[in-house]
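C-alpha cells please, single chain.
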Amino acid sequence: MQILEHRALRGPNYYSRYMVIYMRLDIGELEHRPSDMVPGIVERLKELMPGLQEHRCSVGRPGGFLERVTRGTWAGHVVEHVAIELQNMLGFSVGYGKTVDSYDPGIYNVVYRYRDEACGLAAGREAVDVVESLFNEREIDIDAVIGRLKEVRDAHMLGPSTGSIVNAAKARNIPYFRLSEESSYIQLGHGYKQQRFQATVTWKTNVIGYGIADDKDWTKQILGDAGIPVPQGRACYSVEEALEAAHEFAYPVVVKPLVGNHGRGVSTNIGDDAALHEAYEIAQARHSTVIVEQYIKGDDHRLLVIDGKLVAAARRRAAHVIGDGRSTLQELVDQANADPRRGVGHENLLTQIYLDEQSHRLIEQQGWTLASKIPRGEIVWLKSTANLSTGGTATDVTDDVHPEVHDVAERIARLIGLDIIGIDLLAETLSKPLDEQSAGVVEVNAGPGFRMHLAPTHGQSRDVGAPVVDMLFPDGGDGRVPITAITGTNGKTTTTRLISHLLRHAGRKVGMACTGTIEIDNHIIMRGDYSGPQAAATVLKEPTVEHAVLEVARGGIMRRGLGFDECDVGVLLNIDSDHLGERDIHTLDELARCKTVVVDAVRETGTAVLNADDPRVLEQGTYWARGNIIYFTLNPNSKAVRQHVHDQGVAFTVSEGRIVMRQGHIEAEVIPVNDVPIAFEGHAPFNVANAMAAAAAGFALGLTLGDIRMGLQTFHPTPGQLPGRTNLIEADGVRALIDYGHNVPALVALDKLVSSLTANKRIAVASAPGNRRDEDLMALGAQLARMHDALFICESDPRGREIGEAAELLRRGAEEAAASHCKAEVVLVEHDAVERAFDAASEGDLLVLLVDDIDSAIQRLKGRSFRTPAPIAAK
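Here you go.
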C-alpha cells in the first residue's frame, strides 16, 4: 500500500465537522483481496488491539467493525479503524472515521478523527504498516508500534498544566490556537478578546513578580519584612561563607542555588561540614550564588493561589519506597516504576524515579545499598526534595487548610504580585495557624505546575485550570469575535471586501482575508491569495480585530478544512462549474457539498445567507445550513423566498429599482440600485446580488439599515477599494474594464456589463489556470470569443500542464465558437499580451483585462497614448 496524500484537516471540512486526518491511500494489489480472504485476520486484530471489539462501524453496535471484517471489507477501511484504535491506546479518545472510494480504482479516501495532530498523522502511518502486515500474514510487534507512537505523543502533546487550562477553555467553548509546536505557548479566544499564556504564565503575569519569585533571597526578604515566617538564611559566594552561615544558624541546614526550579541543586537536612561541602558544590553547579538557610522540620506543602484566591493545597512527599521484608532496594524501585501511573516526564500522573548521584548519597546516609533487603514498613527516601518531576507523590489537603493559613497564602500572592503563584511551605500541618507550629515559606514559584492538584496520588483532584480561564475571561464570555465566512464559485472577493467595508464604515475594527490581501483595520499586512485556513488563523490571532471577514475557497476547504470551528455568519453565493476534476470533486453536487461546509459551520445562534436564485444553493444550502437563514434574490416573486418571508424569515431582494428587506408583511427600503456604485446602474446584476448578500450579512451582524445604506453607497469599483474586480478606467479615450473572471459563469455574468459599455471594438486579454479540465478551458475560450472582437490569450499559471497547453485549449475554444468573428492570438507572457492589446486598441475601444498583475496593467494603461481610428472612406 502507498500513502498518496496525508494531512490534518484543522476545522470543519468536506468529510466532517470534526478535525480529522485525511489520507489518500492506494491499496494496490489488496484491491483484489478483501479481508474475508485473509485467514485468521479477525482473531489477530482482537489479539493486537482488543479495543477494536468496541468499534460499532456502520453496523451501529459494538463488534460491528469486526463483523464487517468477517464478511469482507477493503484494506483502506481496516486502516481507518486501526488508526483510530492506535490513538485510543495512547490515551486519546477518538471514534469517528469514514472510508470512501475514489474515482480511481484501488484508491480510497480514508478519514479519521484526531486529538493531537502529530499523533494522528503518526497513527495513520503505523496503521498502514500494521494492516499491510495483517493482509500479508506477517508478524507484528504491537508494543514497538505503541512505543514509537508514545515518543511522538510525548514530544508534541501539551503538558498537564497547559492541557488543564485548554480543557477548561474548551468546556466554556473558548477556541484556542497552539502558537508554537515546540512549546506550550497558547492563545485562547480571537482578536481583541484573546488571552495568551505559556505553561502557567499568562499575559497578566507581573514581570517584577516573576523576577522576585525567581530570586529566593529577594522573596524571603519581602515576605520576612511583611511578617510571614521564613527560614533564616543568607546568600553565600564561597564555601567558607556557607560554612560560616551553617554554624550561625546551627545544623541541620538547607543548601540551594539562588535561582532554580524542580528541586534541582537542593540539598536538605545537611548535618555537618563535610556534607555541606558536597551540597555547596551541587548547588553552585546550578548557580554561582548559593543560599544556606535553616532547616525547618515539617511536611512539604504546595499552596496554589490564582487571581488572588487559594484554589488548592497539596502535601508532597519526596520519592521513596517502603520495604516489604523480601525485596532489595533496587527491586523496590523497579516495582515502583512499574506502576502504570508512572511515566516519563509529565506523560502520566506520576514520574519515573531516576536514581542520580543525589539519590545514591541519600541512600548511603540512611545506611542502605541497592542490594539491601528493606524491612517491612521501613521507608527509604530516594530524593531530598518533594518534587513530582523527580518521582515524588502528592496528597490533596485543600479542605484541611486553616482560615489563617488560607489568608496568609492569598496575602503572599499580593505581596509578590503574581496572578498565578505556587507557595512552598514547610509545616507540620495546614490545619492550624503557622505561628502555632514549626513552619516557614521556603520559596514561591511563578508558573507553578498543576499536576499535583489535577491528579494527586491520594485525595480529591482539583480542576485548577478553570480558575485560570475565569481570571482571563472574567465576563463569562467565550472569547470569540464575530466571524463572517464567504464562499461560492464567483463573487467571493467582492462580497468579502464589501462586508468588510460595511463593518468598518460602522466603526468596527475588521480583519479581512481574501484573494489578494490580508488587511487589518484597512491596512494591508500581506499580499497574495489568502482565501484559505492559514489566512483565517492570521486574522484571528491579530490582537486588535473586532470582526473577522474571511473569504473561503474550495481549495482551502479540501486541503485543510476551515481555519475556524464555527462562524457567526456564513454566506453561500453560488455553485457553478469550476475546478471540477480536482481532489475528487467531479460533479456540481459534490462541489455543492464542499461549499456548504461554510454554512454547516454556522453556530446555532448564527445566520446562513443563501442565494435563492441558485437551485443548488437553495436546496443544499438550506439543507446544511445551521442557525437562522436569510435569503437574497434578484427575483422578488421567488416562491421559496415568498414562503420564507411569510414565515417571518428575512430576505433581501429588488423591487422597483430598489434593494429592499422583507420580513412578514414588512418591506423596508435599503437603497436604490442606482445608488450602489458597484451595480453600474443595474448593468452588473451579479454585483447587485453581491450587494444584497453583503447587506444580509451586515444585518445579521447587527448593523442598522442606515449603516448598510451608507456602506453600500460609499463602496466603489476602484482599484483602491475593489482591486481587480470590475474596475472601469479611462485613459486617452480608451476604457479598460479590469476583472478576474476565470470561468464561464463569471464571464456570462460579466457579459451583461461589457455589452452595456459602448465601444467601437472590444479587445480582451485573458488566461486560465491549467488545472481546469480540457472541456472547461475550451468553453472559456468560446465564451471569451463571443464577447469580444479580439482576444489575446496568455498563461500565468500552467498548474501541472505543459507550458502553452492551457492557452492553446483556450485558443481552440475561441476558434470553434459559434457565431463569433473574434480573432484570437496566443501571447504567453501576460505583460506582452497586455502590450499587444494596447497596440491593437484605438480611441473609442473597450479593453477587457482579465489579468493577474492588476497594478502593472493600470500603470501602463495610464501612461499609454492610443491612436485615433482612421476615418471610414466614403463609398
